[in-house]
């Protein structure tokens, strides 16, 4: 038996459901059925409803639980000695590298917002918060880097990030040819970021 299977069996039913929701909603979309989620997690529907009020609540909790990992994947490995410009470019380098994985489907938070189209849905609320945190991170680095308009630059960077991740996730654009880095570099240069 594989180590991951053993670890999965040791995980609580709640954790297995949240892991299944993360995996299946990313691979198949938020419309994945409760039966598929429960089957993947090895948990009965009855147990699922004892743990979560609804599938929507489970999806929102799953997305919220992944925010620290999402942010860690985009964080520069040496934030103390890197410049704001290097930290911003690192985010896009990570995006370009991640987009080369065969199982890459774009930004999970953007996908939820696009699929649900309901700003009041619990998962949409969490997804918007994750995207807002990314914008705030860009804003802080833009400000530290001396951008003339850090707010505008942060919005532009999120726009490039979301557009690049969506196009790469849909397999209509490759990010390994330097396009995203060149685009972000032009924005940073135009904004005066050091």
From TrEMBL:
Pfam name, any one: TetR_N
Highest taxon in the source lineage: Bacteria
Location of the DNA-binding region in this protein: 33-52
Record domain HTH tetR-type: where: 11-70
Alphabetic keyword roster: DNA-binding, Transcription, Transcription regulation
InterPro entries with a match to the protein in the record: Homeodomain-like_sf (IPR009057), HTH_TetR (IPR001647), Tet_transcr_reg_TetR-rel_C_sf (IPR036271)
PANTHER family associated with the record: HTH-TYPE TRANSCRIPTIONAL REGULATOR YJDC, TRANSCRIPTIONAL REGULATORY PROTEIN
The protein's name: TetR/AcrR family transcriptional regulator
Source species taxonomy: Bacteria, Bacillati, Actinomycetota, Actinomycetes, Kitasatosporales
